[in-house]
Amino acid sequence: MKVILASLIAAGLLLTGCNRVPDSVAATPATYPELIAAGQREGGLSIYSNTDSAEAEPLIEAFRKRYPGIAVEYADQSSVEMYSRFIAEVAAGQGSADVLWGSAMDLQLKLAADGYAQPYHSRESDALLPGSNWRDMVYATTREPIVIAYNKRMIPAAQVPRTHADLVRLLRDKPERWKGRVGMLDPERSGLGFLFYANDMQTSPVAKDVLDALGAIDPKLYSSNGAVLERLVSGEHAITYNMIGSYMLKRQKKDPNVGVIYPTDYTMTMSRLALIPKAARHPSAAKLFMDFLLSAEAQTLLAANKMAPVRADMGDGGVGFPAGANFKPIKVDESLLGELDPVHRLALLQTWRRAVRDR
Amino acid sequence: MTRPFRIGIIAATAVAIFAPLLLVLVQSLLSGPFFGQNVHVTPDAFTYVFTDGDFWRALRNSVIISIGMTAIAVPVGAILAFLFVRSDLPGARWLEPLMLAPMFISSLVLSFGFVIAFGPVGIVSLWVRDMIGFVPWNLYSLHWLILIAGLTHVPHVFIYASSALRNLGSDVEDAARSTGAGPLRVVLTVSLPMVRPALLYSAVLVFFLGFELFGLPLVLADPQGVLVLATYLYKLTNILGVPSYQLMAVVVIVIVAIALPLVFLQRKLLATSDRYVSIKGKAGNQRRVAIGKWKWPALALIVAWLAFTVILPVAALVFRAFLSSWGEGAVLSESLTLEHFRELAGYPNLIRGIVNTFLVASVGGALSVGLYALISLAQHRWKSRWATFLDYSVLLPRAMPGIIAGLAIFWVFLFVPFLQPVRSTLISIWFAYTLVWMAYGMRLVQSSMLQIAPDLEEAGRICGATGAQVSRYVTLPLIRTGLMGAWLLIFVTFVREYSTGVYLLSPGTEVIGSLLVSQWATGAVDTVVALSTINIAMVMGGLFLLTIFRKKQNG
Do A15 and B407 touch (CB under 8 A)? Predict the structure, then answer.
């Protein structure tokens, strides 16, 4: 028995040795036809993403049609799984995805900042909205408003809040009416919940009032989108705060009882971020995919699933944003890393707890 | 079996069990991912978790839930098993397949069935409210969580108890009846005590599943802010922004620390397993006990359990799959739709997911049972430290909540060179499932083996059979029913298993569970319920066929 244990431990120690981030990156071919030829030669492309495979399918299909020689593998998983799987695979030197495409903006940027991503200047770069490209390593690929959603059966049209201040008034006016009727993602347990909360606080002082008003009415906190959305649809919750707009709009298409509010004072937007890892085994195919993802064709396909384009020449791509919406994008830059700083993070969570949980 | 062969099998099993566990142990003592750079040994993770109030709250809730659900599931499961297997209950054959229903529906989805039926604006709740003016229950309270967890784990006890009862000759019960004992007394003082090993095993396992409970608390306890260990892990994932494996590893170590004394206790209680021998050299006939006037209350008990645990939530779920909207103020008749199924049909990899799920559950399940039987035989009738050691070990993989077990097994496949080629095949997923459910399958096989009198095997030896021949021609045929039961159990368990395989899944090896979870994450509950409806229909069909098959076989 001792022998087995000893050898297992020894194996464990050996494993800890293989932990390097590869730093040799093949140069991009000089011309585009060469890049295409190189991609075709590689013959494969592996994408890790947390975008549901049904939503991504039209995109993948179009890419296959354009580059028939490249076999695409699309693995959808949660953003945390994606991150864990990726860093472990790279550490094991086993090769990993060729493209990482995820909505956990902070984790994606951290991977790039930690040196996992390779730079590539997409040929679509100039067509993108400002702030969509971080150091040629991380690209924003969608624009999805963070909205307030409500159940139309529960809130008469006249009472529907238009701004954050309206929401505060509505909640404070009759706190009894809203007790337990408001749901949201839990910043303590959901990465997205935290991202939205932290950026909300950064964007406007009114967010503090919202927090305060929410704290008074015992909001229900969730760690998954499915749980909170279903409770909105059933009327168990009348309002859900800071939800991903694209999911709400998709549901609205099927169930007209779902109401979506883009607060006119400010509406945050988030983006799904894409990067090409240094460890990519099919770097040329990955570059082709990155260009494709940012092309008008792919952006139109994404817009069909309510994920609005990041191209300056496409407007809202038919998603149907209200006129005069005041969008405040969550910036694709180092500020995302600040939110991962443990001290800063714990301080923000402390504020949250005092205002909401421990009240 | 020869001694080196036994030791070989046990050692191989131990390596499979301890590889991921040791990784977790090492991880709990480090400052970052074990494969990362600049990582050093530190007790910080333990300090953090042990000084976190939420951890203690979660642990307390998990312990309360585990105790509560064991206290509910074991008696109910045992009594139902007696009624189905040993009594002349009317309609037993047709009701029995339904008994297993809660096991093969993903607990995430089943919990949603409860919300749709009994939630604050659930279909049953609104109906009751219309009659009496208010809803007299709160589905999201801890009591309800315990009740639902207990009742949905009845099948786990049932399947153990019923397979043990099936092997029990009627002689003991007849003896009790002929000396004037009533049916109730026979159950409580003869039948059930005879299957005490099966009941004890299942009690310990259900207790453990309480720690691992994830879907139910995620859906039912979230709104009240009630944390359990598995949902507390979410907090640990998020607290530092990046997944903090060392903190999660500490939670696993805590659960393992609770597991070991429990196994010790179970072993003490079963120290004299000779008492439970019921398959002896003498031919025994099995007759059902006439329960007379108890027939109808018994049937009522079963129907009540079925209605609450299976029929209402499942019906609500299936109904929901045809609705575009529901709940307070929704007009259901105007919301009927087939849209969700149409949407599902357009899902890429749907068919592949279904095929893979069935492959892993049926073929893989059979292989797993074979493996469990082999390991059990290696340990069978062997008073050795090796056997004791194995007893303590098999429960340990289940002490890891599914998500962490999955991560640890993924690490093993990733970092052990000779395992790398199979990492992205169904084999790795099968291996992960087999490992975490080992305690389950093995206990089932073993509780059947305990019932075989040693004289049968000794008779074989006297006639000149080798150890292997005795296993092949005496022991195995005698536990055939037990093995069938084990396969059925493993099949349904693998059908709904998902979290353990999550890191091992890759394009081409998707299973239904993975599709469910990715839809859940985007809030597409519509397609989740549609897919679950299909899933339920398939497994119900399978169970129905099995019932007919069994009936034919018996006839």
Answer: no
Contact B521 A255 (CB under 8 A): no
List strand residue ranges (DSSP E) for chain A, in order: 44-49, 71-76, 99-102, 133-134, 138-140, 144-151, 182-185, 220-222, 239-244, 258-261, 267-270, 273-275, 327-329
Least confident of A141-150, A216-225, B81-90, B511-520: B511-520
Measured distance CA(B358)–CA(B369) in Å, rounded: 16
B506 touches chain A (CB under 8 A): yes
Residues whose CB falls within 8 Å of the CB of residue B133, separated by 6 or more in sequence, listed in order: none
Residues of chain B falling short of pLDDT 50 = 555
The whole-angstrom separation of Cα B313 and Cα B320 is 10
Q: Does the beta carbon of B421 lie under 8 angstroms from any beta carbon of chain A?
A: no
A83-110 pLDDT per residue, tens: 999 999 999 998 899 999 999 999 999 9
Q: Which residues make Cβ contacts (< 8 Å) with residue A274, sequence separation at least 6?
A: A99, A100, A101, A108, A138, A139, A141, A290, A293
ipTM for the predicted complex: 0.87
| CA–CA distance, B186 with B193 (Å, rounded to integer) | 10
Q: Tell whether A281 is within 8 A of chain B (Cβ).
A: no
Q: Is A326 on the interface with B (CB under 8 A)?
A: no
Minimum-distance CB partner of B22 among A8, A222, A235: A8
Q: Which 329-348 residues of chain A touch chain B by CB within 8 A?
A: 339-340, 342, 345-346
Contacts of B23 in chain A (CB under 8 A): 12
φ, ψ of residue A242 in degrees (nearest 5): 50, 70
**Of residues B231 and A208, more confidently modeled:** A208
Residues of chain A positioned with their CB less than 8 A from the CB of B245: 84
pLDDT in tens, A40-60: 999 999 999 999 888 899 999
Question: Exposure of B529 by Cβ count < 10 A (0-12 exposed, 13-18 middle, 19+ buried)?
Answer: buried
DSSP at B401:
-
Decide if B223 touches A, using CB distance below 8 A: yes
Residue-level pLDDT at A13: 42
Cα separation of B84 and B96, whole Å? 7
Q: Sign of the CA dihedral B235, B241, B243, B249?
A: negative
Query: DSSP string covering A47-96, please?
Result: EEESS-HHHHHHHHHHHHHH-TT-EEEEEE--HHHHHHHHHHHHHTT---
**Which among B162, B36, B103, B74 is positioned nearest to A90, based on CA atoms?**
B36
